[in-house]
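Researcher: Can you fold this with guanosine-5'-diphosphate in place?
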Amino acid sequence: MVPVIALVGRPNVGKSTLFNRLTKSRDAIVGDIPGLTRDRQYGEAQWQGRSYILIDTGGITGDEEGIDAKMAEQSLLAIEEADVVLFLVDARDGLCPADQMIAEHLRKRNKISLVVVNKVDHLDENIALAEFSPLGLGDSVAIAAAHGRGINPMLEFTLGQFPKDPVFELEDFSTIEEGQELKRIPGPDEKDGIKIAIIGRPNVGKSTLVNRMLGEERVVVYDQPGTTRDSIYIPFERGEEKYTLIDTAGVRRRGRISEDVEKFSVVKSLQAIKDSNVVIFVMDAREGVVDHDLNLLGFALESGRAIVIALNKWDGMHPSEREYAKKELERRLYFVDFADIHFISALHGTGVGHLYKSVQNAFASAVTRWPTNRLTQILEDAVREHQPPMIAGRRIKLRYAHLGGANPPLIVIHGNQVDSVPKGYMRYLENTYRRVLKLVGTPIRIEFKGGE
Ligand code: GDP
Ligand code: GDP
């Protein structure tokens, strides 16, 4: 499971600055669930081959009223969601009563936490660290978030203990031969079959869909082998194929009444996405595409997951509404135009069975081993068709390509001056590979290597 790290502390200690530095901000999933406050911000980041989810919080002041109280509440929720808490304090302000209060809370909750003494630029680190030792939380590090100082030791402490991501790197691309291309490489865990995460905002119909998929008579559901975090992993077989459904909505949990707020958690969704092979992304046809859909979908793409889109609640819609919904989908989801779209009714079961074919195709596209000579041939044809540009009088040379990983497929292209390959040309290559290899449902990564 992807570790979750929360940034907490008083306002203005530098939490957002650190958050932005760690996530590089572009891909941060801003804001929380509709109906809740927007005081928590989620992002994904990597450090030394480990992905983690980072939560930024508004801050805790110690004498919360009104909006502050809400903010503090969100911080406390983030602490609960986190595996490790980075407790930021401000070296310039020195130790404050609110810091003491937060430390007290962390101690009570028995959370693994690290005191992060920020803004040590122009200050003596040891004096700064000593200032905060009365907090009595044990470990501490000194950083300057604004300048990137001390970040590595901080992450070493925070993430060093977590295992590295299971990446589907191909051990040796040179051994892939013609004719081997249809052989699948296993997912992270072959016995699980295709791991499908059912993802979407609250009330789009995830629980209904999970129940429908598992309630089908052709499905053999196995005993739940225990739960991880809050998502439930349900292995089942359908036809010849094995699957594991990652149920973020938690319908299968018996005897537990969960309110909406508890039922939907951003962290749970993000972790399920990371842990899946294929995401079935559920949206509500009657509500259209909203920003929160785009955030979650963006995260799934960033994670390289294969995707199948299910536009749910298609039942009982007027033809003109359907027409409009289709147009909206096309307009706003242009960036996932490689994914299959299904118009379904989880409630009545219409269209649900067809999801499997798309899941299988997307998975196959994501994990097929393409031999080096095939990928190189496609590259050569693409270059012949449309040459890369000249850079300072010299033409960019692209020599050969090989597969560097799967789920998502990583195509590594070797050549000269590859740093200068324009974005548009890269997109051209990506589209060419997608078209020729008939890849559906999966994002593709292209990486250039210089030299030779
Ligand atoms: P937050 O409220 O905890 O999210 O704090 P912000 O990230 O918004 O930072 C509050 C202020 O502290 C901003 O003016 C930042 O530029 C400043 N700041 C953040 N990190 C550092 C640092 O390492 N050194 C210095 N000198 N200022 C910093
Ligand atoms: P979740 O929060 O995403 O798990 O959503 P639920 O599965 O709990 O569904 C939310 C509401 O939408 C419930 O009242 C469902 O009965 C309803 N719903 C789910 N799927 C459909 C559908 O296909 N058609 C219609 N009309 N309602 C649906």
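Model: Folded with guanosine-5'-diphosphate in place. The first strand starts at residue 4 and ends at 9.
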